Amino acid sequence: MIIQHNISLKKYNTFGISAKAKFFCEVNSTKDLEEVLQLGEYPEKFIISGGSNMLITKDIEVLVVHINIKGKEIISETEEQVILKVMAGENWHNLVLWTLENDYGGLENMSLIPGNTGTAPIQNIGAYGVELKDTFVSCEAMEINTGQVRTFTKEDCQFGYRDSYFKNEGKGKYIITSVTFELSKKNHLLNTSYGAISQELEKQAIRNPTIKDVSNAVIAIRQSKLPDPSQLGNSGSFFKNPVVSKSEFDDFTKHHPKAPFYKVSEDTYKIPAGWLIEQCGFKGKRFGDAGIYKNQALVLVNYNNASGSEILALAHKIMEAVQDKFAIRITPEVNIIK
Ligand code: EPU
């Protein structure tokens, strides 16, 4: 195992923050990972995979372990479905493209989400009406303290909106090493109900879409709204959409009848944070090298040399403005590394 010193983390986080790792190593197999976890001279570890959902605000003094475990395996299949196990270090979008080449359905709405497969369950990634949990069967995760690998079923993962066991009780305790999905091989259940997808398919005059058509529509929508991290550092939605109670919602819509919203349940409503932030006048603004993306106010961007603390300060400014104007608290979706 090679331990490198003073490595820049810029290319390992999609925000492109130039923090340093005092110690750094890359693991290419679960065996490597087990070995690294046993290294007594580095009792604490910081795990990084696709680096797509984190804002690093300082140099990392402990051993940074980059998870780069690759591989895909069909565990079983019938005429209708396939059970596919994917190792944690596989790039998410490449996995989606591979499933489409093989005509396996279920992941198409989640095309072009940055990051790796192993981190997808942590925040139950989702887009355009579909979440990871919809095709998730189980995942394997290594316990950091013991090196033991445990299988987590869907129930064990306690998935919620951008949430799971791994963001709560399990936080900092496990490293996900693989994820197993159940995908369809025929009679794919398409989810084109999300307004933007149906509009995009209509625009392309596609009446009977295939899973590839849905993926292409999602790619077109995302490319028009969301910045490509390889061109402009970002971590997707920086904030979660706030969920408010019916009485808060009634009060809110009385004052803002044109605001978009989604009904979550009889008593809860989700209000798009992007709309709230735009109303506060932040969309497209730039403060030094930190900014708010011009096409989607939910996305904070790094124009090149912003530090994590500068992005964080901007996030706080936005949260305060939304609180003052709407009396609604918005919270970050990304992990802030302090
Ligand atoms: N809106 C604005 N101004 C903005 C942005 C959005 O007014 O600057 C309005 C839109 O007009 C629309 C509503 O807000 O009426 C919702 O916008 P959009 O469809 O773009 O979705 P979102 O709620 O802002 C969520 C996810 C995205 C995901 C999209 C599509 C969260 C935190 N974000 O965004 O996820 O791609 O829905 O499903 O739930 C991510 O997590 O990184 C991410 C990009």
What do you see in this structure?
With 338 residues, this protein is an alpha+beta fold. The protein folds into three domains: 4-67, Uridine Diphospho-n-acetylenolpyruvylglucosamine Reductase, domain 2 (2-Layer Sandwich); 72-225, 2-Layer Sandwich (Uridine Diphospho-n-acetylenolpyruvylglucosamine Reductase, domain 3); 233-337, Uridine Diphospho-n-acetylenolpyruvylglucosamine Reductase, domain 1 (Alpha-Beta Complex), CATH 3.90.78. The protein contains eight helices and 20 strands. The chain has helices spanning 30-37, 92-101, 154-157, 195-203, 211-225, 246-255, 273-279, 308-326, and strands spanning 4-8, 20-27, 45-48, 54-56, 60-67, 72-77, 81-87, 126-127, 130-131, 136-143, 149-153, 174-184, 233-237, 243-245, 262-265, 268-270, 286-287, 290-292, 299-302, 335-337. The radius of gyration is 20 Å and the shape is globular. The site of uridine-diphosphate-2(N-acetylglucosaminyl) butyric acid has 19 residues, from strand 13 and helix 7.
